[in-house]
Amino acid sequence: MRQSLLALALLVAACGDDAPPRTATPAGPPAGFGRVEWGELLFETHGCMACHRIDGVSSVGPPLDEIVGTSRLTDEGRRVPVDADYLEESLLEPELVALPGYEKVMPGYGELLEPVEIDAIVGYLTTLTRNPH
User: How far is CA 47 from CA 23, 39, 69, 70, in A?
Assistant: First the structure.
């Protein structure tokens, strides 16, 4: 039990709650990066992978691969389509679209990331879509 609580505390800490303040407003991706590549870099560098996996396996948060084009049942019983708008809302106000079975520990990234960075992460996540065939 004690180890489980310690592991949960470490994962929550890694989810970005204590992220450093923004130092400069990014105008866009670094040289040599497209929107999707930048989104992947941001996903990795802002600790998202501490709680979310992209290999279909649940962790502290739900897996994020192959979710675009599906729908999710929120813990309030609402069925919502998973599209770019859902992903953006999940980043800005995750408690509004929380899923059953997951703790509400994800911070809102609206104060941690610029809109252009949120857009890049959403762009990256939308490339991890289900193959419709």
Answer: 18, 13, 25, 25
Task: Compute how many other C-beta atoms are within 10 angstroms of the C-beta atom of residue 73.
Answer: 11
Q: What pTM did the predictor assign?
A: 0.75
Residues contacting residue 89 through CB under 8 Å, at least 6 positions apart: 96, 97
| CA distance linking residue 7 with residue 31, whole number of Å | 37
Whether 130 has a pLDDT exceeding 70, the answer reads no
Determine the pLDDT at residue 15.
52
Residues in CB range of 4: below 8 A, 6 or more apart: none
Largest Cα separation within the chain, whole Å, is 47
- pLDDT averaged over every residue in the chain: 80
Give all domains of the chain, ordered by start, each with its CATH number.
2-18+34-126 (1.10.760.10)
Residues 115 and 109: their CA atoms lie apart, in Å, by 10
Which residues, other chains included, contact 127 with Cβ-Cβ below 8 Å and sequence gap of 6+?
A: 36
Give every CB contact of residue 24 below 8 A, 6+ residues apart in sequence: none
